[in-house]
Amino acid sequence: MLILVTGGAASGKSAHAERLLCAHAPSSRLYLATMQPFGAAAQTRIARHRALRQGKGFETVERPTDLAGLTLPRHYDGILLEDLGNLLANERFAPEGAGDAAFGSILAGIAHLQDCCETLVVVTDEIFSDGVTYPSETVQYIRDLAALNRALAARAAAVYESVCGILLPLKGEKDV
Amino acid sequence: MTILIIGGAHQGKAALSKRLYPALPLVQNLHERVRDELAAGRDPMALLEALRGCAVTCDEVGCGVVPIDRADEAYREAVGRLCCALAEQADAVVRVTAGLPQYIKGEKSCT
Questions:
Q1: Burial of A131 by CB count in 10 Å (0-12 exposed, 13-18 middle, 19+ buried)?
Q2: Contact B64 A132 (CB under 8 A)
Q3: For position A144, which CATH number holds?
Q4: Is B30 on the interface with A (CB under 8 A)?
Q5: Which of A81, A126, A136, B67 is placed for a possible disulfide with B72 were both Cys, Cβ 3.0 to 4.6 Å?
Q6: Cβ of A129 and B83 within 8 Å?
Q7: B41 φ, ψ (degrees, to nearest 5)
Q8: How many domains are there within chain A?
Q9: From the CA of A124, how many Å to the nearest CA of chain B?
Q10: Is A176 part of a structural domain of the chain?
């Protein structure tokens, strides 16, 4: 089963995604981190997310690109993929990324992760409403993320938006 | 009673607040207060206590591309975290679009 959790910056989506995963995955849980730990802001964010996961029985794997090529040691009850925005940035802009093939590469990677677990929770970002004009490579990034969100939402069993820490159901199960 | 009213810019949040919660002191544009606090070197989360018992409006500022400027990113983050904390202690959270209220927490009051 696929569950998609979206939201703006600092909207509380990570905490909800963890809670949803823990509710669906009784024991074996994998946290798949996509953020590359460069810079103070990334370090702060990673530390915050580590503290959130503390004591919840997650294994952690860091994987900035190429999810489809990831070999996992076992089948999991649940995998939490955090997050799509970082993954796409890595695939599009990092030297080892898929570049213009990022969209297809990420969809293939997510299909692969679904084969590796019972419940996959994907965290993504709402970045589409600032009304700012960006250079073409950023525009392409925004388009790709929006297309990924649409594609994943279409196949997800449930989709939620976190707003001010409040989880709003957009599709599927309402009992949150 | 504490009410948080969020939404995009210029959606009629303050007008709605005055109409729905005329008895509550109105704190407008919390996002601007957050910017002022950060500029003064203070932690915006400290505003939380003073907002108890108020109707508070705040722009949703987190739904864009991550800003390149570190200060802009920290501002966006601080607004989001403060809104999460305020929403938790609020009796109702209203999201306003085109002047229309959507209760995402709590019930519409019967005033």
A1: exposed
A2: yes
A3: 3.40.50.300
A4: no
A5: B67
A6: no
A7: 80, 20
A8: 1
A9: 11
A10: no
